[in-house]
């Protein structure tokens, strides 16, 4: 009986810790768009994306060297390349292009569809089958986000929305693959090797972009660049993949439904944006869906 109670307590601690890590990652990611807007004040979209990847690769290389981490096995590299393409190159570039022509608030709400996309990719890739209640709640949350987005854009998708839909597709694949790999590799090594795999492309991107995009170095733009490189591109993923490995990809992904709401708050505080009056209603709907998905058995 004592052994069983001990096992239950250990499991509870592990799940609680995984949820806390995933939630902390969501908070760190919620600042990514405002930080990107700050970076765009001094760098072009291609330059900021390239430099973001290069700087993150430097951080990752230092971490791997200090830890004396061995090279991943050959079977891990296809998944790491998906992480590199989706989370290091595709998502940062497409969201940065969207932020150049759309508001942070609008961009944040569209990205609210990412949890559902991630859960779908995870189900297809790993064979995981969440319960019907889980899917109903996830679809309800996505519907709230989609309705809010269409209301903001007058009922039609914009070019920024198309950028963001592409970003969702590639990032969901990267999240799902990274979460799967984090069950075999330390979570921080998954993103570290993914960042290094993308480094050659990011170096070329940065080198070419600086030749045709003007730069204006300011404290704000450099602060934004530093954040999206060190936290958005590396540190946040360390927490995220570890959390997904502990509590499962579907449940962890649903915590990210709160990210648009947090980003809306940062947009007001840091950028002076004024969200639509519909935002509080969307917030209540999304948070309700999060509560249901976290209780649903996966």
Question: What can you see in these coordinates?
Answer:
The structure is a single chain. The chain is mostly helical. 80% of the residues lie in helices and 0% in strands. It is built from 13 helices and no strands. It has helices at 2-30, 32-40, 45-67, 77-99, 104-110, 114-126, 132-152, 159-181, 187-209, 219-247, 249-255, 259-271, 279-295. The protein is globular. Mean pLDDT is 84; it is low at 1-15.
Instruction: State the distance separating the first and last CA atoms.
Output: 27 Å
Briefly note the structural class of the backbone: mainly alpha
Overall geometry comes to: globular
Radius of gyration: 19 Å
Order of helices and strands: HHHHHHHHHHHHH
Largest sheet: none
As a percent range, the share of helical residues equals: over 70%
How many beta strands in the DSSP annotation? 0
Number of helices: 13
Q: Uncertain spans, ≥5 residues at pLDDT below 50?
A: 1-15
Question: What is the arithmetic mean of pLDDT?
Answer: 84
Q: Beta-sheet strand percentage?
A: under 5%
